[in-house]
Amino acid sequence: MVPNRIAAARTYLNRMNLDAILVTSMENIRYLTGFTGSDGVAVVGRDALWFLTDSRYRTQAGEEVAGFTLSEYRRKLEESAALLGEQGFAQVGFEASSLTVAQHTTLVQALGSDTLVALPGDFAAIRSVKDQEELTSLEEIAGLASQAFMNLIPEVRPGATERQLALRLEWLLRDAGADAASFSFIVASGPRGGLPHAAPTNRALCTGELVTFDFGGVLNGYCSDETVTVAVGSADDRQREIYRIVKEAHDLALETVKPGTSCREVDAAARDHITTRGFGDFFGHGTGHGVGLEIHEKPVVSYRSEETLEEGMVITVEPGIYIPQWGGVRIEDTVCVTRNGYRVLTRVPKELMIL
Ligand code: ZN
Ligand code: ZN
Fold first, then answer.
1. Each residue of 145-177: pLDDT tens digit?
2. 41-45 and 327-330 as β-strands: parallel, antiparallel, unpaired?
3. Is the pLDDT of residue 193 over 90?
4. What residues does 308 pair with on adjacent strands?
């Protein structure tokens, strides 16, 4: 249990005028309790804390979760609801984004719909500002993933398939010490680079193509996220021009990163540049996102974002241009917002590499 994190949850609870928050997302449970298993429920009350899990995790919860009253359930939601009922809580917040309709129905039957309050998605924003322990894990996994990519470079050559390279990159990353991949890697070669989220196929790389790799690892629960676009053998003028525009957009967005900058301004710095160069219609996604226990978390860095950067936030900056049937370029780094600016956690150089 980390007192600051519990305090943040209680500040939220008070702001929403609740008696308790029923925490069901495993990332928020891990954040608040330290529990690393895959099933459990945490209840944060105004002056008491409970953690419930099943018999598989009895010992583990005893070791990992301090400061919470522990109990074991056979029927997760029914017994969680019984606990909330026993306490006489009149207003209980729940995470709307991590309960199914069926689970919600079970809770309503036990507690009544007047008791349950759907929390807006911003509850997860209690995790936006990272503490030193989190930053250490984020920096370490970003470094491991970048090194794994650098070790893959000799294998990025004509004839290698997207699938082979995705698998090799994951192998190198796990071998270097990552607990897992943070998502299914993207390896998109030639025209497939025009798909921002292309899954790797059996397509073999050809000389003169761009290839986009989007990859990351997990360490101590924390994710990394980086995208590198390289050229195989050679690059023509159009490929170089589009790469340069994306790199400039990436650099312009990075220059805005400091406490007090709105996430919308970070997005606009990249988007305005790409639009001015005539490719605005080919940059459909947001410029970035927070990274932490989830690969995509608060804050959102897009033109719709309402959030403002604070020291300790960790975000990606990842503009791209995707042209159907031609291909695409995305350049992504993960950065930590520091007192005066930012520190880049991902390590692969972002000048165009011709392999
Ligand atoms: Zn990525
Ligand atoms: Zn990303």
1. 999 999 999 999 999 999 999 999 999 999 999
2. unpaired
3. yes
4. 262
Residue 122, pLDDT score: 84
* Length of the chain counted residue by residue: 355
| Ligand 2 centroid, distance to 229 Cα (angstroms) | 14
pLDDT digits 0-9 by tens, 86-124? 999 999 999 999 999 999 999 999 998 899 999 988 899
Residue type, 179: D
Q: How far is the CA of 214 from the centre of ligand 1 (A)?
A: 5
Q: Which ligand is nearest to the CA of 214?
A: 1
- Residue 119: other Cβ atoms inside 10 A: 20
Q: How many C-beta atoms lie closer than 10 Å to residue 193's C-beta? A: 26
Answer yes or no: do 66 and 141 share one domain.
Answer: no
Pair (195, 323) in one structural domain:
yes
Q: What is the CA(100)–ligand 1 centre distance, in A?
A: 27
> Distance, CA 222 to ligand 1 centroid (Å)?
14
Strand order in the sheet with 222-223: 180-181, 217-219, 222-223
Does one domain contain both 105 and 158? no
- Residues 178, 184, 189, 195: is their CA dihedral positive or negative? negative
**Closest-lying ligand to the alpha carbon of 183?**
1
Cα separation, 138 vs 134, in Å, equals 6
Question: How far, in Å, from the CA of 139 to the mean position of ligand 2?
Answer: 15
Ligand number nearest CA of 301 is 2
The whole domain housing 280 covers: 132-354
* Helix axes 263-276 and 237-255, enclosed angle (nearest 10): 150
Distances (CA, A) of 136 to 2, 124, 179, 248, 333: 16, 21, 15, 29, 17
Residue 321 shares a structural domain with residue 204: yes
